[in-house]
């Protein structure tokens, strides 16, 4: 519904559809996407567009609300649904010839049957990196995190023609003006705000003093583990990178 998700008020569950509900959703026949299974139950996403559904027991929540509910498998399912819906909403016409695009039956793609141009859901690679220097970790406050007073690891989009490692070095230098070394791949996480794939790295400070760009990053400091600011939850890869860096710092101190 718009950019919100319909969920049960009491249990924060998604709308578990009965046959009655299904009779209602047949109006959205061409807006139904199969998502596979969740908890052993077939799972469908139904895009009702900007329609206002009023069903007593249900309310709507944001994708970020699902993320903060701490149910990671549910978040992943909803995140995939949201990205597919967003993809279909934004790929209705062919970017090459302007004809209407059609849904491909056997995979998540849209195709122009006039010129054969095909589109897939957007996935934007992003790097995210936790940097340590002795017993300290670099945490920065992005402009987007200012209201929540949160400090996090550095992150940025990979540019065309760039390797992940080049992107890490470039982003870190652009955002906080330091050089890093000993880059080590940590893991990845799809991040549906709106369609990123975060690829996480651990790194060590090599040289340079912190000098924030003042644009994306408004503040950054080296923090000792005993004196951390507000940091992201562990459900996010940023939270996991911070946790791992703190573990490495503790290990080197023993
Ligand atoms: Zn076309």
Q: In what range is the share of β-strand residues? A: 25-35%
The first-level CATH class name of the largest domain: Alpha Beta
Find the CATH topology of the largest domain: Nucleoside Triphosphate Pyrophosphohydrolase
Number of discrete domains? 2
Task: Please tell me how large the radius of gyration is.
Answer: 21 Å
Give the helix tally: 5
Structural class: alpha+beta
CATH homologous superfamily descriptor of the largest domain: Nucleoside Triphosphate Pyrophosphohydrolase
Shape: globular
- Major sheet: 6 strands, mixed
Please give a structural write-up.
The chain has helices at residues 19-25, 63-68, 72-90, 164-176, 237-253, and strands spanning 4-8, 32-38, 41-46, 58-62, 102-103, 110-111, 118-119, 124-133, 136-142, 154-157, 179-191, 196-207, 217-223. The chain is of the alpha+beta class and 254 residues long. The chain has 2 domains: 4-90, no CATH class; 124-253, Nucleoside Triphosphate Pyrophosphohydrolase (Alpha-Beta Complex), CATH 3.90.79. The strands form 4 sheets. Strands 8, 9, 10, 11, 12 and 13 form a 6-stranded mixed β-sheet that branches. A 3-stranded antiparallel β-sheet has the order 5-6-7, with no helix packed on it. Strand 11 and strand 12 form a beta hairpin. The protein is globular and about 60 Å long. It starts with a strand and ends with a helix. The mean pLDDT is 87. The site of zinc ion has 8 residues, from loops.
């Amino acid at each position: 519904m718009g950019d919100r998700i319909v969920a049960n008020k009491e249990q924060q569950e998604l709308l578990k559809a009965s046959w009655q509900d299904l009779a209602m959703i047949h109006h959205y026949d061409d807006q139904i996407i199969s998502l596979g299974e969740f908890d052993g139950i077939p799972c469908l996403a139904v895009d009702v567009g900007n329609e206002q559904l009023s069903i007593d027991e249900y309310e709507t929540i944001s994708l970020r609300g699902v993320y903060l509910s701490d149910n990671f498998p549910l978040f992943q399912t909803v995140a995939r649904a949201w990205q597919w819906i967003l993809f279909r909403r934004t790929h209705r016409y062919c970017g090459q010839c302007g004809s209407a695009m059609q849904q491909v039956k056997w995979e998540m793609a849209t195709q122009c049957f006039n010129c054969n141009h095909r589109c897939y859901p957007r996935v934007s690679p992003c790097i995210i990196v936790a940097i340590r220097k002795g017993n300290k970790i670099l945490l920065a406050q992005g402009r987007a995190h200012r209201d929540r007073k949160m400090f996090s690891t550095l992150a940025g989009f990979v540019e065309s023609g760039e390797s992940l490692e080049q992107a890490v070095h470039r982003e870190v230098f652009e955002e906080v003006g330091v050089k890093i070394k000993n880059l080590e791949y940590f893991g990845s996480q799809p991040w549906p705000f709106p369609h990123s794939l975060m690829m996480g790295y651990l790194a060590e400070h090599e040289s340079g003093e912190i000098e924030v760009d003042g644009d994306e990053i408004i503040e950054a400091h080296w923090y000792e583990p005993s004196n951390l600011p507000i940091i992201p939850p562990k459900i996010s890869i940023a939270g996991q990178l911070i946790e791992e860096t703190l573990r490495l710092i503790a290990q080197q101190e023993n």
